[in-house]
Amino acid sequence: MSYVKKFQVEPGARIQLDKIDADFKPKGLDRDEAEERIRELTVELRDLQHLMYAEDQRSLLIVLQGRDAAGKDGTIRHVFGPMNPQGTRVTSFKVPSKEEQAHDFLWRCHKAAPKRGMVGIFNRSHYEDVLVVRVHDLVPKKIWSKRFDHINAFERLLADKGTIVLKFYLHIDRDEQLERFKKRMNNPKKNWKISDADYTERPYWDAYTEAFEDALSKCSTDIAPWFVVPANRKWARNLVIAEIVADTMKGLNMRFPEPEVDIEEIRRKYHEAERAG
Ligand code: ADP
């Protein structure tokens, strides 16, 4: 079964995250083999991104969500890092600024959506407005509960413009999160990543689970599917995401555009210039 089918959330399906194994290992591949495959895939992804840029007809939006320490930054580095920076744009969504707060919640995300030919990567996204906002009662339920429909309409709008939307929930379990916090604490090169939020959010684990489950089931659509990616093992996570993105991009059957000039004419001029020295 392809990873697309295996990890995609069926539109409307109820998800129970604690029933999904965050420890998944791909069948028949050990870690070294998986890492070799990831290297091949990132080369493929780089070429596909180049083709998307050259074709200049469609764009790709990758949405990454997950709990603290789920591996959003690592995914960007390992899976999308080898792409050409000229054709990609990463946007990290933080607590909204005063100006952002004065607009509707989609305003800042719409501005960051990839234009034709580009790959856009959202590190957190418009989903924060039905996740952290819901868990901490930052706006009343009657406001956030309408946002699922707004999100689906927004993503439909992007799709109608030729944007392929792929959304990944990086699924780690409680023990793995604590383990990663410990590594951040004990490794001087990772200390900078520790934030108070890591610890203040942990008691809200179940509230986040409920919020994520709702978002995944209400907003996984044919044109903008969610994937629940087991992420306790970083290499398995990278493999699954790279396979899904590569599969999707290959399925677009993109073509290099026809040259706008007459190649025979150019060839003739070139030979003339060559003869003239
Ligand atoms: P990250 O954890 O993404 O590496 P930060 O430590 O700066 O980066 O965390 C960003 C914070 O911004 C997160 O706690 C996240 O929940 C919060 N945030 C993002 N979007 C919103 C939003 N719309 N409303 C409130 N908080 C938000």
UniProtKB/TrEMBL annotation:
Q: Name one Pfam family in it.
A: PPK2
Which keywords annotate this record?
Kinase, Transferase
A single GO molecular-function term is: polyphosphate kinase activity
Which domain of life, per UniProt?
Answer: Bacteria
GO-annotated biological processes: polyphosphate metabolic process
Point out the signal peptide segment. none
Tell me if Hydrolase is a UniProt keyword of this record: no
* Ranges that cross the membrane: none
* InterPro entries named in the record: P-loop_NTPase (IPR027417), Polyphosphate_phosphotransfera (IPR016898), PPK2-rel_1 (IPR022300), PPK2-related (IPR022488)
Keyword Ribosomal protein attributed: no
Which SUPFAM superfamilies does the record cross-reference, listed alphabetically? Answer: P-loop containing nucleoside triphosphate hydrolases
Annotated Polyphosphate kinase-2-related domain ranges read 29-253
Gene3D superfamilies in UniProt: P-loop containing nucleotide triphosphate hydrolases
Family, as annotated: Belongs to the polyphosphate kinase 2 (PPK2) family. Class I subfamily.
Query: What name appears for this protein in its UniProt entry?
Result: Polyphosphate kinase 2 family protein
